[in-house]
Amino acid sequence: MKRDGNELTGLAKIAYKPIGLVFGLLGGLLAGQVFALVWKKLSHEDETPLPLSDDYSTREVLLAATLQGAIFGLIKTAVDRYGMKGVRRFLDTPPRPHTRTEV
Question: Which residue, 57, 63, 67, 6, is CA-closest to 36?
C-alpha cells in the first residue's frame, strides 16, 4: 500500500476512530439517499432494483449495483478525507511533508 505521508498517526488516529465511525454511518445513509434520488431520476421509478427481484432484468440490477457502488465509494472517500482534515485541523497537527519515491 502506497503511503503519501499524510495519514493520521498517534493521537490523531485515536481521536479519529469514534468520529470516523459516526461519519461512516452518516456517509452510508447519505449515499443510500443519493443513490435512491439518482436512480429515481434515471429510471423514472420510485423503487431501486433488489438483486433477487424478478421485476427487473439482470442488466438493470447490475447497472443499479454499479451506480450504487460508485456513489457509495465517492461519498465514503469524501467523508474520510474531510473527516481526517477536520480532525487534523482541530488537533492542529499539520500533514507530514509529501515525499515521492520512484519505483
Answer: 67
